[in-house]
């Protein structure tokens, strides 16, 4: 995991055009959106505005009037686990979806057109980790970065990094930078010479109840204070705050069980 503030444009604003493979959005589908909106509003200071109603109710989270994430409602007849899903930019979603299939992944939703968003698809890599692909139209995605309450990093937690890194390298054109360590299996994915995401091979320590999954880190001012807020607001702490080479971090979950990480970047 590393600090991804370099992916933002001047003054923290995200660039208008994104290279294919750049993380461009993060979305959460839940059963009770009103309660979850209250949780994240209190935790990150988000406000909300209505988004496209496809396939159901959806809101966009705002900071300083700029979009940072989305929250939608799961169909009541579908008992799916709640999770933050990262989306990666693509210049041609249909072509990317076909590459996903050819490389051993699956495409479960789309490609389809979403009003005001563009064209998108949701799939999974060969290990089963779910991610989305977006071809932007009017809505380019996350419009603010590098400040508290915004996505700071995307990290795939999986059994081993080598084979799945090859999948993402082929699909999105990433360059790999493995961590040379006997006790850490980690690959950083680069685009245009800058880090955009990481892959952490966790072996047997990967949570069996979740399997391989993408983890979104959200930036906070004080991670210990944010952890206290999570508990007060009805969430849970899965891994307490600890110091890392990139700052202080903790892993938590919201009241519906969606897991995410908090990051206080190193100064």
From TrEMBL:
Cited InterPro entries: Anthracycline_SecMetBiosynth (IPR052164), Glyas_Bleomycin-R_OHBP_Dase (IPR029068), Glyoxalase_6 (IPR041581), VOC_core (IPR037523)
Gene3D superfamilies (UniProt xref): 2,3-Dihydroxybiphenyl 1,2-Dioxygenase, domain 1 (3.10.180.10)
Coiled-coil segments: none
Domain VOC per the UniProt entry, residue ranges: 22-136, 150-265
Protein name: VOC family protein
């Amino acid at each position: 995991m590393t600090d991804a503030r370099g992916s933002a444009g001047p003054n923290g604003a995200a660039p208008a055009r994104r290279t294919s493979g750049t993380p461009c959005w993060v979305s959460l589908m839940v059963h009770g959106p009103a309660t979850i909106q209250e949780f994240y509003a209190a935790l990150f200071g988000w406000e909300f505005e209505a988004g496209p109603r496809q396939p159901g109710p959806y809101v966009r989270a705002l900071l300083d009037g700029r979009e940072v994430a989305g929250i939608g409602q799961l169909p009541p007849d579908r008992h799916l686990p709640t999770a933050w899903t990262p989306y990666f930019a693509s210049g041609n979603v249909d072509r990317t979806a076909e590459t996903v299939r050819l490389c051993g992944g699956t495409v479960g939703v789309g490609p389809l057109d979403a009003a005001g968003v563009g064209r998108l698809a949701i799939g999974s890599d060969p290990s089963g980790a779910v991610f989305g692909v977006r071809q932007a139209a009017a809505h380019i995605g996350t419009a603010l970065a590098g400040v508290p309450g915004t996505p700071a990093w995307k990290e795939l937690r999986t059994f081993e990094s080598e084979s799945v890194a090859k999948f993402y390298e082929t699909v999105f054109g990433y360059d790999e930078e493995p961590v040379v360590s006997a006790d850490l299996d980690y690959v950083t994915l680069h685009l245009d010479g800058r880090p955009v995401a990481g892959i952490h091979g966790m072996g047997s320590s990967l949570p069996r109840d979740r399997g391989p999954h993408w983890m979104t880190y959200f930036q906070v001012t004080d991670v210990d204070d944010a952890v206290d807020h999570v508990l007060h607001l009805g969430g849970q702490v899965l891994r307490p705050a600890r110091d890392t080479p990139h700052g202080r971090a903790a892993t938590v979950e919201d009241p519906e069980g969606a897991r995410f990480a908090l990051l206080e970047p190193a100064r």
